Amino acid sequence: MDEISLSAGTAAKAAAGLTDGFGRAITYLRLSVTDRCNLRCSYCMRTDVKFLPKADILTLEEMERLGAAFIRFGVRKIRLTGGEPLVRPGVMLLVERLGARVASGELDELTLTTNGTLLAKYATGLASAGIGRVNVSLDTLDDEVFRRLTRRDGIADVLNGIEAARSAGLAVRINAVAMAGVNEAEYDRLIRWCGEQGCDLALIELMPFGERTEGLYLPLDPVRERLATRWTLTPAKHKSGGPCRYWRIAETGRLIGFITPMSHGFCSSCNRVRITCTGKLVPCMARQGDYDLRAALRSPEGDQALEAAIFAAVGCKPEGHQFNEGYKPQQGQPMWRMGG
Ligand code: SAM
Ligand code: SF4
Q1: 333 belongs to a structural domain
Q2: Better-scored residue on pLDDT, 148 or 243
């Protein structure tokens, strides 16, 4: 694809990088490539979900153009997400094109968050396209709990996918959403299993999206304290470019991370924006407000309109989230469109 030609004004801004109104540099883009998914996790997607008409969804070329623009403006890391990114037909084309930007040094990292069900098919291709690590969402190792949570079968595919990813040389972090009374008793087993597989683990605080989250929220500080009585945990310096705080587990040699959007704010160091598969820029997942980039992408004014739209949207990034101020996720984009 052609390089984006910058207008003089935007070229000056681009040299300074994308910075929001609170002085935070935006260096991390989460790009949702589809709203479709082959699972129906109860904390994410309703069973009666209505998917968007295909015409509303950005083409892969438009996504590449967006990615290229953000890279030009200083983004160093892109995460592809969804819905389930691997159900998007032709997604490997986007992976390969953005992966080439890692090879050329324009991007530090291209990565992917997936439910793992299709990883066995794509793991080798992902690794050769320049992806070094993937996050695989797996909340439980129990067949029945998996079926209840995701409202689908498929745990065997996920486990095969993880094995294939490890064999292809991909580093894997397992993401498990912590839920009181659902998978609360499984963290020791997950830690042990991750150690055997050579995977890191991240526990994530449940956010009030989806249809069945009431009463399931589990703050992670007490969980970490409990785990520290059974495992030798040492704070680790490791950073993955996001809000995860890591500890090294001496017994397995692997990392355990805790992502705590509900109990600890990390807004002051937020470096990310999200783009939905329809081209809406979501500056903060827990605030109302998104900014359309699709009209600019499809505008006859071309790149100038896109550049202006990106800077305007990033300039509207709010100072902090509103989870603790009665924010109702129904007012904003659903999780499966924002990509987590
Ligand atoms: N389908 C892919 C997957 O499941 O990994 C990518 C999209 S999914 C929306 C991205 C991440 O968001 C997953 O790790 C998922 O567990 C997390 N997520 C979804 N709903 C959530 C919620 N209500 N609270 C916390 N995390 C959530
Ligand atoms: Fe699909 Fe991921 Fe949402 Fe589960 S969390 S329904 S796998 S998009």
Answers
A1: no
A2: 148
Mutation test residue for ligand 2: of 35, 84, 135, 177, the one with most atoms within 8 Å of CB: 84
The CA 62 to ligand 1 mean position distance, Å, reads: 24
Q: What is the pLDDT of residue 238?
A: 81
pTM for this prediction = 0.94
With respect to residue 330, please indicate whether it lies within any of the assigned structural domains: no
User: What is the structure's pLDDT at 323?
Assistant: 66
Verify whether ligand 1 is closer than 6 Å to residue 243 (CB atom). Answer: no
- Bridge-based pairing of strands 272-275 and 28-32 is parallel
pLDDT band (50, 70, 90) for residue 68: very high
Ligand nearest the Cα atom of residue 183: 1
Residue 114 burial by Cβ neighbours in a 10 Å radius (0-12, 13-18, 19+):
buried
Tell me which amino acid residue 295 is: A
> 197-220: per-residue pLDDT in tens?
999 999 999 998 877 788 999 999
pLDDT at 10: 61
Q: Is residue 91 part of a domain?
A: yes
Secondary-structure percent of the chain, ordered helix, strand, coil, rounded to 5? 35, 20, 45
Distances (CA, A) of 5 to 72, 76, 103, 322, 323: 10, 19, 22, 37, 39
Please tell me the number of the ligand nearest to residue 114's CA: 1
Give the tens place of pLDDT for each residue, 222-240: 999 999 999 999 999 887 7
pLDDT computed for residue 182 by the predictor = 96
Residue 302 tokens read as 């071309």
Is 335 inside a domain boundary?
Answer: no
70: CB partners within 8 A, 6+ apart = 18, 29, 78, 310
| Residue 291 domain boundaries | 10-322
Nearest-ligand number for the alpha carbon of 203? 1
Q: Note whether 6 and 307 are within 8 A (CB).
A: yes
**Residue 217 to residue 324: CA distance in whole angstroms:** 13
**Whether residue 329 has its Cβ less than 6 Å from ligand 1:** no
For atom 5 of ligand 1, the residue with the nearest CA is: 114
